[in-house]
Amino acid sequence: MIEKGKIGVRQFTVLVLMYTLGTAVIILPSLTASYAHANAWITMVIAMLIGIGIVFMLNCVISIDWKKNLFELSEHILGKWVGKAVSVLFLTYILLLTATNLRQIGEFITTQVTVETPIQFVMFIFMMTSLIGVRLGLEVIGRTSEIFFPYAFTSLILLLILVAPEADFRNVQPVLQEDIGGTFLAVIPTLTTPYLELFIFLAIFPYVHRFKPAKKAFYIGVIIGSVILTLITLMCLAVLGPDFTARQIFPSYILGKKISLANFLERIEILVAIAWFFTIFFKITLNFYVLNLGMSHFFNLKSTKTLSTPLAFIIIIMGIILFTDIIYYNEFVAYYAPYYSATIGILLPMLLLLVGFIRKKKKKSKVG
Amino acid sequence: MFKVIVVVLIAVVVFLLDFATVKKSKSKKDKKVYIAFFILALSIVVLHVMEVNIPTPIEGIKQIYQPVAEPIRKSLEKYL
Q: Transmembrane stretches, by residue range (chain B) (predicted)?
């Protein structure tokens, strides 16, 4: 085993929760509201139910042999060459995913916070923090997540509480009367972030201290994250209105701008930004870590740190060249990314599960 | 040209600082793969600095999933 560190069950829960919230918390309300309009929160609930199903499937996959991570598992189940080929598919996806996440945070900072700073510079700074995280190993990432989790979580809860007086629930009525088809079809793009990306936790599972509580922790993290996502979408719809939510690129950030308490507590939208910085930092770091882990398994290297520096620079440049502008990005995320993510996030784990199951049965019949 | 020289100089510094950690692992394979990836990363950065148009892999993914994506895209766009 290349990685020798171990993380606790609570750290694993926090990491899953942060991973579910990262990116999704700020871009998902606009994506769902574009198609489901006033019913966007129902779309989120349906996506959450399907997401729990995906978690169940992933838990089944790791139960085949929980001492092996995703890349070892695919080689173990599918044989050396096919397993390596499947690993390449996983790794390409994770590379593109990390680059996309990095681009999203860069895009957010350059459009909302520091408008004049070149995007390359913002992405460079974020990537360097993640690089330090990966260099220090999984244990340090786990402990850091425990430290920063309260800040991210409280600022999201504070956002929900403080913005509540502005809510006008006539905006979300009538429930499920119009755009019913859109409500159900919008589940497809909604699933991409975060549910179809959860498969990367198959690579983290073997390093969790105890296995059975970790399976439960996976459910808990995803459920709490999805509930927060649903509540934020509901608040966006109630406060900003469905059309305004759909037109914004970062609606939860605009939601933060609406906070106004007794003409005193105003313009604290940076609360949302804080929550987002922390969650996306852990998302990028985990993705980058799994990418390094997979690369070192693929090339049979001695340490996960070996390739981290060159990969960091590749990711920065990838983040810039992947999408020409935000329109192109939105089009890709809404119409094409779901199928690519589904291939990697559902189809390949299913394949592993099926082949693993058949192999187990054959072994049993041979012994019997 | 000035930018390229600066990038290469920075790359040399990064290489000198970073290669020490790889050297510690005392594995020949680690060193070989590291150098290959470093050259790849450096060439991508240099191409980007020289403003060469690198084609995005996103176009390829779009082409592959076109048959599945197009019908659902049409029905989704009805609800925009």
A: 6-22, 34-50
